[in-house]
Amino acid sequence: MAKTPKTSKLPVAKIPVAKIPVAKTPRSSAPSPATAPFAAGTVPAADSTSGPKFCSILPDTTLGDDVALVAENMEAILSSPSYSLAQDDRHLLDKAEMRGVRMLLELGKPELAFQADSITSTVIVFGGTQIVERPAAERRLSEARRAMARAQASAAVPASAMASAAVPASAMASAAVPASGLASAAVPASGLASAAVPASAKAVEGLARELKRAEQLLAYCRYYDAAREFARLVSIDNQCDDKRDYVIITGGGPGIMEAANRGAFDVGCKSIGLNIKLPSEQQPNPFITPELCFQFKYFALRKFHFILRAAAVVLFPGGFGTLDEMFETLTLRQTHRMQPVPIILFGRDYWSKVINFQFLADSGVIADEHLKLFTYAETAAEAWQQILDFHEAMKKQA
Questions:
Q1: Under a CB-based contact definition with an 8 Å cutoff, are residues 123 and 306 in contact?
Q2: Which of 49, 218, 243, 349 is deepest in the core (most CB within 10 A)?
Q3: What local confidence, expressed as pLDDT, does residue 282 receive?
Q4: Interatomic CA distance for residues 146 and 152, integer angstroms
Q5: Adjacent-strand bridge partners of 77
Q6: Cα–Cα distance between 275 and 253 in angstroms, integer?
Q7: Do residues 141 and 218 lie in contact, with contact meaning Cβ atoms separated by under 8 Å?
Q8: What is the DSSP code (8-state) at residue 87?
Q9: Are 384 and 242 contained in the same domain?
Q10: pTM of whole model > 0.90?
C-alpha cells in the first residue's frame, strides 16, 4: 500500500475584513417604549427582553410624605425581633442553628460561678433517686401494703357472690334518679372501693412486686443516711479558707443526691447541683446552694462540669443514671483522659451483685490493673479517709 506523501503546512493569509457601514434608522416621531413618558395612571407593560421591570401596582401618593404611615413603620422597626440585641432574642437562640452558641453558654455560665466562689475542687456524689430517707420509705411501704391488702380482699370475693349482688336492669330503671337529683344522690368515694371489680391475678402479682421493692428500698435507707453523713465530713473542714476544696457536687435531684446536698447544708457549707432538663417535670432538691444550682439542656456539658474539677467520685447504689456515670468515669480513667481521682463504690454487697468486675478481667476484656481503678467503702468515714489517703499519696509522688 502506497504511503500518502506528507504535505507541508502552508501559511494562512490573513484576509482583511472590511467594515460594513450600518445604516442608521431614521428617528421616528413617536417615542420608544423605554423612553416614552408615562401617561397619567398608566404603567408600561413588562418586557422580559429589554428595559427595567416595574411593579404592577404603584401607590397614588408618595409614601414617604405620609406622616402617619412613617410613624407606624418606625414603631414596627423598634418592635421587630430583628432590631433586638442578638443576646436578647430568645427565638433566635432557640433555633437549631444556634446549638453551638447554647452549648457555649452552658460551658461558660457555671464556670464563671465556680470562679466567683473560689471553688478549686469538687467531690462527685452519684446515686439512685428512689433511695430516700426512712420516714418517706416507710410511708411508701405502708401504702404498698394497703394496696396489696385491698387487692387480696377484692380477689377473695367469689364471682357468683358478685353476680347475686348485682342490681337487675329493670330495678335500676324504676329507681332512676332525676338529673336534678344526681348531685345529692352521688355515691361517696369511700363506697366505690367496695363495689370494685375483683382484682385479677396479674394485678395482685404486680402489687406483690411493688411491695417487695418497697421493702428493699426501706432497707436501702442506710445509704441515704451514709451519703448525708459523708457530705458533712467532706464539707465541714474544707470551706473555711479563701479557696473552697472538696465541694460536694451532685445531679441536683432527689434520693442520694438530695442526701449529699443536705449533708453540706446541715453544716452551713456550700454544695453544687447540676440539674438537667428532662421531658418529665422535675425540680432540684431544696438543699443546694442557690447560686450554685444550674439547669442544663445538654448532658455532655453537664458531664464536663462534673469531671472538670473532680477530686473524687463516690457512687452509691443507683440505677441506669448512676451506672452511666460510673462507667464513663472508669473509661476516662482507663484511657487517661481525666485527672487521677479515687473512684469509690459505696456498698460492696450491692455493687458485686450489679456487675461482676472480676469476670470482666477473667474474660480478658479488661486488664487486671483496671480493677485497681476503683475501691469499695462501707461507711462515710471510710470513704472520706480513702480520698484523703489517695491525694496524700499523689502529693508524695509529685
A1: no
A2: 218
A3: 77
A4: 10
A5: none
A6: 7
A7: yes
A8: G
A9: yes
A10: no
d(CA 23, CA 2): 58
Sheet holding 293-296, edge to edge: 293-296, 271-276, 247-250, 122-126, 310-315, 343-346, 374-377
Furthest C-alpha separation in the chain: 126
**Total domain count for the chain?**
2
Give the Cα separation of 372 and 344 in Å (integer).
11
Residue 176 lies in a domain: no
Q: Are 271 and 86 in contact (CB under 8 A)?
A: no
Res. 154 pLDDT band, cuts 50 70 90:
confident
- Summarised one tens digit per residue, pLDDT across range 315-351 is 999 999 999 999 999 999 999 999 999 999 999 999 9
The span from the CA of 393 to the CA of 398, in Å, is 9
Query: From CA 228, how far away is CA 264, in angstroms rounded?
Result: 8
pLDDT score, position 264: 97
Please report whether residue 4 resides in a domain: no
DSSP sequence for 151-210? HHHHHTS-HHHHHHTSPPHHHHHHTPPPGGGTTTTPPPGGGTTTTSPPPPHHHHHHHHHH
Asked if 207 and 303 sit in the same domain, the reply is: no
